[in-house]
Amino acid sequence: MAATRVFVNGRILASSDVQKETTNFADCMVLEGDKILHIGSKSDEPVQEIIQSGAEVTDLENRIIIPGFIDAHTHLLFFGLALRKLDLTNCSSLELVKSVISRYAREHPEMTRILCRGWHQPSTGRLALATMLDNLDPQQRPIYVEALDLHSTWVNTAALKELPRDHAKDLDNRQVPCDKNGNPTGLFAEGGQTDIVWPYLNEKYTEEDKQAALRKAFKAYIAAGYTGAIDMAMDDNCWDALRLYREKNGTLPIHVAAHWLVRPAGDLAGQVDVAISQNKKWNPSSTPDFCVVGIKLICDGVVDGCTAALTQPYPGHTSLIEPLFTKEQMDLVVKKAAQADLQVAIHAIGNAAVKQAIDSIEQANTPTGRHRIEHLGITSEEDAKRLGALGITASVQPVHSDPAILVDYQKLIGPHLWDRAFAYKDFLDHHACVAFGTDAPTARHLPLPNLYNATTRKSATQPQMTERTTPHQALTMSQAFHAATAGAAYSRFADTWTGTLKAGLQADFVVLDSKWTPESLLDDSVAETWSNGKKVYQAAD
């Protein structure tokens, strides 16, 4: 018989009404094995009978229990690998970037390459020339500086020499800037990143490198209160690493659903066929804890890199930035995937890209497919309304709205578009499912600071800042926690077995030390994480 456990004297998030902005707390939860048996009051007759029968009772001492967090948009292997890279997040100038890299290179003579992360383009005046990174390392090793948003990598001359050039000629000057002789100058953006830099570096990681990275990633995620994740931009490299981890350990520490990356170059239909094949082997019905649920398309870039597709030119530019997929390409891919019962996820940040993504999902005519748009950085009022009407999930990352990283954002898009930035409340008001993710490692994976961004629209990294990002789009605590749990579960068709605290559902939950106010979220902490009815994390006293 499965063990029974009773949690009492707490605040258990029993239900929340997203539209009414209300939250209902119970004071007791009963587990039986890996399932929730009862949510209610300690005085309920069934609960009293269970306690009297000798069940283990845990006094929560007024702590809060919520469903386990589900990161609706992350990159687990990249996150684990990023933990081993030099972090440049706090480097606010070119001089600081250079000095930090130079010191790191001297301290690590054993490394074959210097791998960095967290470069914020405005910190170097948006310049990224190979010569700017030369002469920082006495050994003249290749240096790779990955942007904070993961959409580009800045390299030195030594790296240019070792990187393959075959695909560079197929990409425009926006993705691989070249000099007058046609030679790359040091920046690889969008397709230059996904088709050249990533594949090359992935080959350099050993299998043990990847397994060690996943161990670190899962450990960090469990400690943060996650019981699930949706891994975006999946490919053979990442999938094989996750599959091997699962084979070696019998299971994954958290449930993982994946969206297979479809690139705009090459055989589009063939790429979708790969995702269809993987879904047949690994699907939510046969392996809900580890499955391929859909595809991922990257429609545009990012505002900081002036590669997000807007309806107006960027300052200093005379022409529009076009989406990475043409309308015809996107419609073909989306329709083929949707007809195969795959979920479609489309990265769209600029308002022009958002409209194209919505149009493409609409033409596929599968309103129950729970298709989704990632990021939605700038969305027109009309398109915000269309999301809910078409059953499209707004998969957003509040951490990207942190005013500390939006130094040039308003200047680049102008006041009119700025008013439509990160329009989460509009999405909810028009009945779209909102799912929260972090996009780690482009940002911290921690859910509580993410919720702070969503509810206060203030900076979680620099809380002393007074600036707020479009404060009229702030969410309530109920709405924010719903998006980080139930909304994320719904977005991957997992809402029938996890994401909320209800009798019969899987016992995936988090015990929080929390005052349950937006302002307290940065001081709140995860005390325990439970997955499948088992405690998998306990905070140190």
TrEMBL record:
<feature type="domain" description="Amidohydrolase 3">
    <location>
        <begin position="56"/>
        <end position="537"/>
    </location>
</feature>
<dbReference type="Pfam" id="PF07969">
    <property type="entry name" value="Amidohydro_3"/>
</dbReference>
<dbReference type="GO" id="GO:0016810">
    <property type="term" value="F:hydrolase activity, acting on carbon-nitrogen (but not peptide) bonds"/>
</dbReference>
<dbReference type="InterPro" id="IPR011059">
    <property type="entry name" value="Metal-dep_hydrolase_composite"/>
</dbReference>
<dbReference type="InterPro" id="IPR033932">
    <property type="entry name" value="YtcJ-like"/>
</dbReference>
<protein>
    <recommendedName>
        <fullName>Amidohydrolase 3 domain-containing protein</fullName>
    </recommendedName>
</protein>
<dbReference type="InterPro" id="IPR032466">
    <property type="entry name" value="Metal_Hydrolase"/>
</dbReference>
<dbReference type="InterPro" id="IPR013108">
    <property type="entry name" value="Amidohydro_3"/>
</dbReference>
